[in-house]
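--- STAGE predict ---
source: upstream dedup step, 1 unique chain passed
mode: sequence only
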Amino acid sequence: MPSGRGHGRPASGDEFTVLLEDVVHEDAATLAVQRIAEALQKPIRVSERDFFISASIGIALSGACTDRPEDLLRNADLAMYHAKASAKVAMPSSTRA
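--- STAGE serialize ---
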């Protein structure tokens, strides 16, 4: 991942959280998300059939408004739901550091 290590884990149901360490600039997070989105666009072949995955991705950066981990996760959830509504990758201004 750009500018540091990354960790992923299921959050709940069909949602996943990816934590990028040592991200200094918003551009590094955006690049990581673009790489994830590109990887998900590739078909997955199972028993000679192609399956496609779609994803709504929200970005939240830590900063002055996110002292607690649960605040960061809440902001990421809000960004993801905003992305679902707009069918894009989203980073609402309230989640920027």
